[in-house]
Amino acid sequence: MGYACPVCESEQADAVHLANHLAITASLGRRDHSEWLEEHAPDWAEATPEELGETVSQHAPEIETPEFDASGHGHSHGRPDALEDGLARQRRQSGRGSLSAEAEGVLQEARELTRRMEADGDEQALDDSSTGDSKE
Question: What is the pTM of this model?
């Protein structure tokens, strides 16, 4: 028996895999997973995978999972779905990469400051070359 993620229904082999899935996905910025964790396991960031697994598995539906084997994954328990494949699927879901208005404003300001620094650096280099000053 395994668990389905209570947020995205991703199949997980056991409670520890479920805990790791939720924590990693939340840490990578998936707001839906982090909000779920904050509601159901507020101390999730300090918990071990085993401790978090005990908590989150109480809220996740149990599912039949295929037999796990060690082939092709480089570790002893295998997984029906590689972590990288799951992350790739999540990147394609809506809400991924969307910024708040504040974050977008900060990025715009950083771009403008970078542009100004580059322009100032170009002007300084021209001034140095015309006066014969060299920083070498």
Answer: 0.52
